[in-house]
Amino acid sequence: MVAVLARLCCDDLVSKGSGAVYVTTQRRHHTGKDGQERVYETHLLRRSWRQDGNVRNETVANLSRLSAETIELVRRTPAGERFARPRPGRG
Fold first, then answer.
1. Tens-place pLDDT, residues 47-69
2. β-pairing, 20-31 with 37-51?
3. Whole-structure pTM over 0.85, yes or no?
4. How confident is the prediction for the chain on average, in pLDDT?
5. How much helix, strand and coil, in percent to the nearest 5, is found in the chain?
6. What CA–CA distance (Å, rounded) separates 88 from 68?
7. Could you please report the per-residue DSSP string of 54-67?
8. Measured between alpha carbons, how far is 1 from 23 in angstroms, rounded to an integer?
9. Short-list 73, 71, 84, 82, CA closest to 43
10. Nearest to 59, CA basis, from 33, 21, 15
11. Which of 12, 47, 77, 88 could tie 19 with a disulfide, CB 3.0–4.6 Å?
């Protein structure tokens, strides 16, 4: 899954000049009837571009169900960082 998202970020969207790709985190604070505050986080893969002088945004994928480590890898990929796969047989 990470490889697919990384390829989508770097190759298809960015190289075609169709807008900057980035990961955004949105937090919602909710206080329940019991008085306990809960924080809900949503991690989205988004792209933005200018069209007719206005900034447009599009959500490419919802990453919220991925692990924190995977989200961090996806977050670092559009910034141009490349990750090498470990070679088989090496720990």
1. 999 999 999 999 999 999 999 99
2. antiparallel
3. no
4. 80
5. 25, 40, 35
6. 25
7. EEEEEEEEE-TTS-
8. 16
9. 71
10. 21
11. 47
